[in-house]
Amino acid sequence: MNFIIDAFAWIFSGDTGAYASIPVAFGEHLLFTLVSVLIAAVIAIPIGWAIGHTGRGRDIAVALSGAARAIPSFGLLVLLVLLIGVLHKPEAAIITFVLLGIPSILAGAYSGFEAVDRSVIDAGRAMGMTGWQVLWRIEVPLGLPLLVAGLRAATLQVVATVTIAAYVDLGGLGLYIIAGIPLRNFAMVLGGAILVAALALALDGLFAIAQRLVVSRGIRVAAQTLETGSAVAQPAT
Q: What is the pLDDT of residues 43-92, one digit of tens each?
């Protein structure tokens, strides 16, 4: 219990010694996370949508995603730093985090399309919609909740893994964890871990709200109607 109290005391004191202040480290951590997830989304979403729309290439995507998940992030980061060079450590870190984020976003993108009721798509085509119209007016809006879920999972994975960026002197909240261990400053170590967890929870909350907001209005109305009907149908006790 004392360790937790000491950790919060360290956080609120703002005494980071010779290391970057908490707001600076927080900003670095958030920047690495957002840039990595954004690049991963730009790569994964079009591919996932193409797979979900055409129904082709799913097995290959699943295999590649599984392989990417199996790659140890820490080992990959160190390897890329050695290959690219110490002058390009930020690029090496971004590549590592992008590879980590792609599988979840890719799965969310094509799973969102696969979850769309085929009868809805058939109805759109029967009304004379082109392939592009079906894509943008039916599949994309109805597939957004699962896509946001994929983005949510990817963001949480990346924000936790960005902690290792401090190992190659790139800052972030992981700096306090890595620096505090050899110093035996357990308040700093636990404080850094609490800050990472707080950032992850904040981002998770934002994505939870976004996931609710992107649900199609028609689906929300139908769900509310179904719930109301079920409540009315229940016998009185």
A: 999 999 999 888 888 888 888 888 888 888 989 999 999 898 878 899 99
Q: Which of 195, 95, 212, 196 is nearest to 152 (CA)?
A: 212
Query: How far is 169 from 47, CA to CA, in rounded Å?
Result: 33
| Distance spanning both ends of the chain, measured CA to CA | 48
pLDDT at 216: 72
Half-sphere exposure of 215 (CA within 13 A, CB side): 13
CB-facing half-sphere around the CA of 224: CA atoms within 13 A:
7
Q: Is the four-CA dihedral 214, 216, 219, 223 of positive or negative sign?
A: positive
Sequence-distant (≥ 6) Cβ neighbours of residue 9 within 8 angstroms: 187
Of the candidates 151, 177, 182, which has an alpha carbon nearest to the alpha carbon of residue 164? 177
pTM over 0.85: yes
* Assigned token pair, 211: 């996931």
Length of the chain: 237
Q: Which amino acid is at 210?
A: A
Per-residue pLDDT reduced to its tens digit, 207-233: 999 999 988 766 555 445 545 555 455
Q: Could you give the domains of the chain?
A: 22-233 (1.10.3720.10)
Q: How far apart are CA 106 and CA 47, in angstroms?
A: 7
